[in-house]
Structure formats: structure tokens, C-alpha cells
Amino acid sequence: MLTGRELGFLSEHFSGAELEAAVAEVESGEPLAYVIGEWYFYGLTFKLDRSCLIPRPDTEHVVDRAAALLPHGACFADLGCGSGCIAVSILNERSDLRAVLCDVSSGALEMARLNAEAIGVADRAEFVLADMRADFLPAGEVLDAIISNPPYIRSGVVPTLSEQVRREPRLALDGGADGLDFYRSILDVHLSHLAPCGHMIFEIGYDQADDLRRLSADRGLSCEIFRDYGGNDRVAVVKRP
Predict the structure, then answer these.
(1) Residue of 99, 148, 185, 222 with fewest CB within 10 Å of its CB?
(2) How far apart are CA 129 and CA 106, in angstroms?
(3) What is the pTM assigned to this prediction?
(4) In this predicted model, what pLDDT tens digit does every residue of 9-29 receive, in sequence order?
């Protein structure tokens, strides 16, 4: 049974037979965001399809940290950009910034490009089809921040997630046996591209703060943790001491 809020969203986008079909899709377990083809993040509307993870409100804390930390005229990378919600929101907040958006999914990268164009920041964005675990950046390129909401759910936990979440791309959810595969790769592969006073800003799972502190300390880095709207650990800011 749909909630009143869900029915309201559907009624804004469909009517008649289309509304009935959309209601049936949601009742079958299809995420509402995929049915209406868009979702809302940081006060903006993002186009969306099943190639992209659905933006969550707690991810807005990543945008807050980046917008506050980045120096004037900075360039940053968003690794595993999905719909582009993080990078596009940051660029929309800060007209002085530039960004490199990377994703291994061509569908997600195209959606990020469409969102950047719709919101009016595409002229300050570069889009790269690449695996974030590979060093795809040109030799010598230096960034003021490397930002990522990587896959961080343990492989064994993914099958236990709700049906709606399991309909989102597993590529954007599965972080390996311990959920830390992508953090390790980003720290090891991309640290050489980070400016001396730059930051790595990660979304993390609610129980991964100690893991990120350990991974950072093992590489001679400091790690500060920030909490989300629900009081859970959610953002890790990593930098050189």
C-alpha cells in the first residue's frame, strides 16, 4: 500500500491510466524515484534512472563539508559520481569551482552530464568514464579535494537489504567483503593527485568510522568524522597531518 506522500509524488507526474501503471510499479517494489524519473537533493531536482544510486538526504553532509573546505578557484574530483548529485550540488553552491566527475557506468555518467547541463554547471565540469580504483587522471594533475560516496556495503549484507534498495545498481552498493575495498583503492591510487593541503571527503557507513581512521593512520593521514541528521557517523574528512 502506497503512503499518501508517495501517491502525491506520482499524482504530480502522472494521471489517468499512466498513474494507475505507476502506482502498480511502486507497489511491486520499484523505487519511487525510478518510476517518476527524478529525485530531490540539496534543494535541486536530479534526473534519475536505474543506472544511478538514488540520492539520500544524509549525503548532503558531504556537500556541506566540501563547500566549506574548498579554497577559492579549486578543482575537485567526484569519484563514482552516479547522478552527479554531489558534484553538481557543490558546483551550484560555489561558482568559483571546477570538477572532474568519474563513473564506471556510462549510463550514470550520461545522467550526471544531463543534470549538470540542466542545473547550469556543465561548463565547469569534465566527465570521465573510468573505474575509480584506477589512476585515470593525467600524470601531474593536482586536485584540491577528492570526494566520493563509494560502494561501502559488505558483500554479504547486500542480499539482506530491502527489495527496493536491491533494485538499485549493485555496482554502487557492494564494497567488497569488508565494505572497504573502494576506500583502500582511492587512498592508495589517488593520494598522489591530492594537493598538499587538500582533503579526501568520503561518505561512510554508520559503523565504519574506526575503519576509516585506521586506513588513514596506516597511510600517515589524519581522519575527522562528522555525523548525519540521525546522529550516525557519515562523513570522513581525510588529509595529511
Answers:
(1) 222
(2) 6
(3) 0.96
(4) 899 999 999 999 999 999 999
